[in-house]
Design brief:
mainly alpha, single chain, 49% helix, DNA polymerase, domain 1, hpI Integrase, Chain A
Length: 336
C-alpha cells in the first residue's frame, strides 16, 4: 500500500519531501492501530490518532494538519474510498504568530561571521529574496551577469520569476563559478558528471545532464545516491549545512533571536513601504540598479518611472495606503 501511495504522489508531481512525510504518517497511523488495514478503520480511529498527536505527543497545529492531509490523500486518492465523515473532523486551528525580523545591522553582523560558500549563499538570499531551496538548487544557466538578473525556476507554487543580481555579490559569485567549473572538468574526466534533470528532460535530452549550463551553482563536496533513480552523482549543497552555519554565526555575533535562512527574507517582507518599494524583487521588476553603500546588498533602481508605471495598475485603495505609509515615514520625528 505504501508503494501505491508513492506512485500516486509521483503521478501528481509532488516533491520527494511530501512523499516521505505522507508515507511516514501513514505508517504511524497503521502502527498506532495495531497494524490494521486503513480500509477497516473509520472516523473514530482517525480522531483517536490525531488526538494522541496533540495530547500525548504535544505536536503543533501545523504538524497535526499535515498528518490529517496525509490520511485524506491515502483514503481519497489511494484507496478510492469516499469519506463523508472526514469532512466533520475538527481541524487544528493554526495560531497567529509574529515573525522574527532582523535589522540591517544585525544581518550585517551575522554575515560578517560567515565565510566560504555558506556566506555566499546567505548573502545571495538576503540580496535577492530567494528561499533556501531556491538558492541551493540554482543552476549555472539561470545566472545572467550581463543583465544582472537571476531566474528562479520552479519556485513556490511551481512558478518561475526573475530577481536582481546584487552588485555586492558579482565578484564573489563569479570567482565561485570559476572554481565550480574546475570541479566540473575534474568530474567529467574521472567521475560522474551528470546532474539531476527535472521531469523527463533526462530521457528527452540524454546528454544534457553532463553539460555545464545545467550544473548546480552550489554543490556538495562528495557524491551521493539519487533515492529514486539510484544513480550516483554530485548533488547540490545540503540545505541543513547552511542552516547550521547561519545559526552558529548568529550565536557568535551575539544575536539573541532565532535566526534561520527564512529570517533573512523577513526584513523585506515586514519592512516599511518606503523600503519595500525600492527593492526590485518585491515588485517583480528588473532594471539598472545601484547601491547606496558598499556593505549594502540591496540593489535599487535608478529611476522612479518603473514604480509609477506599476502603481498605475494598482487598485486605488492600495495606492492610497502606500502613499500614506510613505508620507508617515517622511515626517520628521518629534523633538525630544
Amino acid at each position: 500500500m505504501l508503494d501505491q501511495l508513492r506512485e500516486r504522489i509521483r503521478l501528481r508531481h509532488y516533491s520527494i519531501r511530501t512523499e516521505r512525510a505522507y508515507a511516514d504518517w501513514v505508517r504511524r497511523f497503521i502502527l498506532f492501530h495495531g497494524k490494521r488495514h486503513p480500509i477497516s478503520l473509520g472516523a473514530a480511529e482517525v480522531e483517536a490518532f490525531l488526538t494522541s498527536l496533540a495530547v500525548e505527543r504535544n505536536v503543533s497545529a501545523s504538524t497535526q494538519s499535515q498528518a490529517l492531509s496525509a490520511l485524506l490523500f491515502l483514503y481519497r486518492d489511494v484507496l478510492n474510498v469516499e469519506l463523508p465523515w472526514l469532512d466533520g473532523i475538527t481541524r487544528a486551528k493554526k495560531p497567529q504568530r509574529l515573525p522574527t525580523v532582523l535589522t540591517r545591522r544585525e544581518v550585517q553582523r551575522v554575515l560578517a561571521q560567515m565565510d566560504d560558500t555558506p556566506a555566499l549563499v546567505c548573502r545571495l538570499m538576503y540580496g535577492t529574496g530567494m528561499r533556501l531551496m531556491e538558492a541551493v538548487r540554482l543552476r549555472v544557466k539561470d545566472v545572467d551577469f550581463e543583465k544582472r538578473v537571476i531566474t528562479v525556476r520552479d519556485g513556490k507554487g511551481a512558478k518561475d520569476r526573475v530577481t536582481v543580481l546584487p552588485e555586492a555579490v558579482l565578484e564573489p559569485l563569479h570567482a565561485h563559478l570559476t572554481r565550480r567549473r574546475e570541479l566540473f572538468d575534474a568530474d567529467r574526466e574521472g567521475g560522474p558528471s551528470f546532474v539531476y534533470l527535472p521531469a523527463a528532460l533526462g530521457r528527452k535530452y540524454p546528454n544534457a545532464g553532463a553539460e555545464w549550463h545545467w550544473q548546480y551553482v552550489f554543490v556538495a563536496r562528495s557524491y551521493s545516491i539519487d533515492p529514486r533513480s539510484g544513480n550516483e552523482r554530485r548533488h547540490h549543497l545540503d540545505e541543513k549545512m547552511i542552516q547550521r552555519r547561519l545559526k552558529a554565526a548568529a550565536a557568535r555575533a551575539g544575536i539573541a533571536k532565532p535566526v534561520s535562512p527564512h529570517t533573512l527574507r523577513q526584513l523585506l517582507r515586514h519592512a516599511p513601504a518606503r523600503i519595500r518599494l525600492r527593492h526590485p524583487h518585491r515588485a517583480g521588476t528588473v532594471g539598472p540598479c545601484r547601491r547606496q553603500h558598499d556593505d549594502d546588498l540591496h540593489a535599487r533602481p535608478q529611476s522612479r518611472r518603473t514604480w509609477r508605471r506599476q502603481s498605475a495598475r494598482w487598485p486605488l485603495s492600495v495606492t492610497i495606503c502606500v502613499r500614506q505609509q510613505v508620507a508617515r515615514s517622511r515626517r520628521p520625528s518629534p523633538p525630544g
